[in-house]
Amino acid sequence: MQLFYHPHLDQSVSQFTFPEEESKHIVRVLRKKAGDTLKVTNGKGFLFESTIVSAEPKKCVAEVTSSEKQHQKMHWFHMVVAPTKTNDRFEWFLEKATEIGVNEITPIFCEHSERKSVKKERLEKVVLSAMKQSLRTYLPKLNDAITFSEFMESDKGGLLFIAHCEDEEKVDLKRRVAPDQDITIMIGPEGDFSHHEIKTAYDKGFLPVSLGHYRLRTETAALVACTTVNLINNG
Description:
The protein is α/β, with parallel strands linked by helices. It folds into 2 domains: about 5-70, CATH 2.40.240.20; about 75-235, Alpha/beta knot (3-Layer(aba) Sandwich), CATH 3.40.1280.10. It is about 30% helix and about 25% strand. The chain is built from 7 helices and 13 strands. It has helices at about 20-30, 85-100, 120-135, 150, 175, 195-205, 220-235, and strands at about 5, 15, 35-40, 45-55, 60-70, 75-80, 105-110, 140, 145, 160-165, 170, 185, 205-210. Strands 6, 7, 8, 9, 10, 11, 12 and 13 form an 8-stranded parallel β-sheet that branches. A 5-stranded mixed β-sheet has the order 1-3-4-5-2. Helix 2 (about 85-100) runs parallel beside helix 3 and helix 2 runs parallel beside helix 7 (about 220-235). The longest helix is centred in the last third of the chain and has 17 residues, at about 220-235.
């Protein structure tokens, strides 16, 4: 099955038009024609079955024939990750985290961050593509990049964890995670969180966790965290 995306679809819509770029992909690349069936999601849990009524490269029109709502999981999983120095490594993380099932992602800039800006539009395309490829009907929420301090002042709930490299006693993440509980995990930059940032996180209720015996790259650590949470909630 191939999944397409249209953010404005809901159960009140009977006929809709794909944007020009998606229309061109459907008609010219995939060679779809009138009468063909497409599966479409709005990224909010709905899966629509539709039939093409007009297959024009600049304006592909389809008619909704049926719809169903897929329920969200019981827990909300929020990854807070410092962007890596190399863009493609962070994009790789976003792709894999989306496939695994993350609900929300916030890029944060820390004291030791080598990268101080990201192109959100590009990252949104990566997340969207991964959602379609993995046949998810919920589009993860990608927040604007903010500083560590700004994130510390934001509203947070559920289980709060921080993974860092300082030498102190930590509990394995798999022993901290509880099924069906909202969870936020922070992963720092290549140079790790500063001592001040770690102390600030503790003061805000974050607990230290271990992701294993070895020192991991930022994107690897973030992916290990995603996999651990997914396994606990689907075990």
